[in-house]
Amino acid sequence: MRPRINGQITASEVRVVSEDGAALGVFAIADALKLVASRREDLVEIEPEAVPPVCQAIDYGKYRHRWIQAEKDRRGL
Q1: Does residue 1 belong to any structural domain of this protein?
Q2: Is the CB of residue 12 less than 8 Å from the CB of residue 28?
Q3: How many independent structural domains does the chain possess?
Q4: I need a surface site. Which of 29, 46, 55, 67 has the fewest CB within 10 A?
């Protein structure tokens, strides 16, 4: 299942972490999107069930590459 990114995220408020996992804070979705845009990154929802949902500020291409590699490692490919 693909994670929601940027405008696909439906929560009104999200907890944002940086690429290295450092907490950046809890933001209204509009403010979180402005933050990642200023950093030239994407907002990727990584824990949709958390309250508020946790999103990572990261380039989506880089996130997707890491996720694919982790899946290959998990499956032993």
Answers
A1: no
A2: yes
A3: 1
A4: 67
Residue 33 within any structural domain of the chain: yes
Residue 59 contacts residue 42 (beta carbons within 8 Å): yes
Q: How much of the chain is helix, strand and coil, in % rounded to 5?
A: 40, 30, 30
Helix (H) or strand (E) holding 62: helix 60-75
Confidence (pTM): 0.85
Greatest Cα pair distance, the chain, in angstroms, is 40
Q: Where residue 2 falls among pLDDT bands split at 50, 70, 90?
A: confident
How many residues does the structure list for the chain?
Answer: 77
pLDDT in tens, 22-72: 999 999 999 999 999 999 999 999 999 999 999 999 999 988 888 888 888
Count CB neighbours of 66 within 10 A: 12
